[in-house]
Design brief:
Number of strands of chain A: 25
Oligomer: heterodimer
CATH topology of chain B: Rossmann fold
Number of domains of chain B: 1
CATH class of one domain in chain A: Alpha Beta
Radius of gyration of chain A: 73 Å
Number of strands of chain B: 5
CATH superfamily of one domain in chain A: Histidine kinase-like ATPase, C-terminal domain
Shape of chain B: globular
Shape of chain A: rod-shaped
Strand order of the largest sheet of chain B: 2-1-3-4-5
Largest sheet of chain B: 5 strands, parallel
Helix content of chain A: 40-55%
CATH topology of one domain in chain A: Heat Shock Protein 90
CATH class of chain B: Alpha Beta
Bound molecules: adenosine-5'-diphosphate
Chain lengths: ~750, ~140
Amino acid sequence: MKNFLTERKIIIGFGIVTVILLFMAFFTSLRSFKRVKQLAIEEFNQQQLVLARHVAFSLKTIINSLKEELAILNLSPTIQYLEKVSLANRMRITLSAVRNKGVLEIRRIDTNCNRVYVLDKNGVFKEITRCNNEEIKLFKWSQNRKNKGKIYISPIHTDNRSGKLIMYLVTPTYQDSYDEAHPKPTHKFVGCLMFTIDANQLVRMVASKVKSGKTGYAWVIDETGRFIYHPRKEYVGQNAFSVRKKEAHIPVSFARINAIQREKMLKGKEGTSWYISNWHLGVIRKMKKLIAYTPIWLKKRGDSPLWSVAVVAPMQEVETMVSDVYKQQLLFQGLVLLAIILVSFSVVGFERHYSVQLKKEVEEKTKDLRASEEKYRMLVENANDLIYLIDTTGRIISINKYGLNFFVDENTWAEPKDFVGKNIFSYIHSLDNAFTPEVLKEVLNSGVVSLEHEVEINQRKYWLNTKLIQIKRRTGEIAILGISRDITQHKEMAKQLFNTEKLASLGVLSAGVAHEINNPIAVILGFCDLLLEDGSLSPEEIHQVLKRIQEEAEKCKKIVENLLMFTRFREYTEEITDVNANLERVIALVSNNLLIKKIKLEKHLSPDLPKIKADARQIQQVFLNIINNAIQAMPNGGILTVTTRLNTQLNMVEIFIKDTGPGIKPEHRRKIFDPFFTTKKVGEGTGLGLTVSYGIVTNYGGTIDFETKTEEEDKENHGTTFIIRLPVYNPKQEEIKCQAKFLL
Amino acid sequence: MPGKILIVDDEKGMLELLSMTFKHKTDYEVITTTDPVEVPRILAENDIDIVISDLRMPEIDGIELMDYVKQVDETIPFIVITAYGTIESAVEAMKKGAFDYITKPFRKEQIILTVDRAMKMRQLQKENIKLKEQLEQMRKKQV
Ligand SMILES: Nc1ncnc2c1ncn2[C@@H]1O[C@H](COP(=O)(O)OP(=O)(O)O)[C@@H](O)[C@H]1O
């Protein structure tokens, strides 16, 4: 029970700790999730910033290379001296190098801004005789002596005709170079050289290749806040502050992005942040976007023109990425935890189940044990046997209450403990030397000894059936358990042979008779039938049939005779008769038979035997039956001893008829008085002889007993003795009987 | 109507009576034995049509013998002879498959009648078996 409680506590404790751990794990992972998300966002934005810088750097590199190309072209004497034949060719060479960088035209404005020589991107060369306003503006910048050797990058403007975002690279042209045709440079200002650039194409070349995260992209604005590049084509050329609102399908606040553009980007600052958007690559909905931005100083830091590049990506992308990882991690954690919990619970559960089972089993066993102990104790206490435990010398260790009845007189109070320590042999005296200290040695040798023996206890004689068993006590010492059953009565009863109950009732008897008699009668009747009705039987057959009829009729006669004698229905007369005389008459009848069978007769007839009262013929029948049995038991000769005497104690005449035959087998002994029990061949015995004799003798208040030993039991003195006891005739008793009859 | 009858009874007189009765009143061939232990051998060596047996015998009891005979050939009619007053055992035998019973003492007409009936049935059964075999063979040929 105690174990159980502690076990319970352990289980509950385990449960609580598990739950706490679970919550802690959950919270820490939640917190770390938030922090990791933050970190991831920052990290992501840093990467976006790197991308933005890359865009800025690439763009600057391209513009620098364009500047270089322009400067190199400007050094060409063909350009400087406007050598008309080779001018176009020279321009074409440069164009092929810069066309893919957004250059649409190469223009050369002459000294007075009267003529413009143009090579468009398809390689077509033109001479235009008028300058437009833009050209005039740029020419003026070029005329300024201070600007010699410099390259001007113009602001972007939208071309009215093509709608393209145009910007110019301009440089003043001086005749500083020389060649064969112009061996001496004039060093005069002769106009300017310029690239007309599609800004959008230029930027797109770099920006469109940017991919941030999965779907993030870059956009670029100029210093007026105009989109030079945006993946959404409609935005290109539009004002970044107004176009978003104009195009918004969902109303969202663009305050943040506007602020970023105004305060940071257009001020040439670099940084990362987030803003609310409503568009991402065609997806229209309200979303948070991460933004990284960096300035592009086309000339040099702090000097106009300024562009700004931004790289943006939906925040959700980062979040889902992080949370995906986190979900997996959480799932993994959860699974591990679950596995641990399951395993622990099953271990605890199994152990618990096992211990419950064990406990149950133990309880049951204990109960059984207690029950069996109890049963055993009850058995010993209430047994009608003498049960005792003695040591190897016979000293009593314990004894049951019933046993005391043997040791003390009735009405004397005694308790088992009074006998403990005393020697058993001082109470039980063996009359046949079977129960002595010697027998204990035998028990120690063989483990168990069983004996049937006669003893005297407390001056009374008993027959005991005793079993002695060697046992080992709990203390380890060897002891002997004795169980003695009082079989005195049993022994006496056995001596007195079998009682009337054994005798068949008249019903059983007649059933048996009916069967016995039925057979011969059926045969006789059948043959008669044949004889009477049929003339076809041959004389031999008739003879055979008649002989058979006779035989069967004999059988019937014998059966009926015996039966009549057994039952009381036959009339009989009671007379005062002499046993010896009746015996002599029977012996005379069989004497011939004795001679033939070579049987010696020994007679010991008591001369002064009292008379009995009985039907003499019946008494003779009894003697005849028993002597006949004796003769039949000695087919090869033997000794027949007939003895009579008076048993004064019982006041009965005793007749002993003894043979030296094979004896009666133990398994037949109980049956020989049963009607129709016979071991003899058909015709020799009917099985009624002893039944009838028993009936007659008991009818007169007598008894029939027998003592028998088979050859196996006693090789020397085998044989059977029948003892018939008949009451001595007592005239006084007769009177009483008569009176009793009258009284009735 | 010829046929073979086996009679088993431990009483010699009864056997003699029955065999003489059948000899003079019928055409049946009769084999008798007082020893039930002999029955298996006799069944094996002879084409027995009917078995008549006493119910009460020392070695084997009549019902046991019937069980044995039925095992060898279920179609052999088994007639039991019982003593008067022991109808119960006769009924028991009938329940277990005996063809009929005769109580002792009996009249010869009675037993002859019973045996004739048994023999008729036996003949019919034999015929039936033969016809079945023929049918079976015809079927086999057809196949
Ligand atoms: N003197 C004896 N010796 C051996 N067996 C005997 C003796 N007397 C009787 N018996 C046995 O008891 C049985 C019954 O005897 P009994 O009733 O006289 O019938 P029966 O003599 O007709 O068999 C006998 O069959 C025999 O086995």
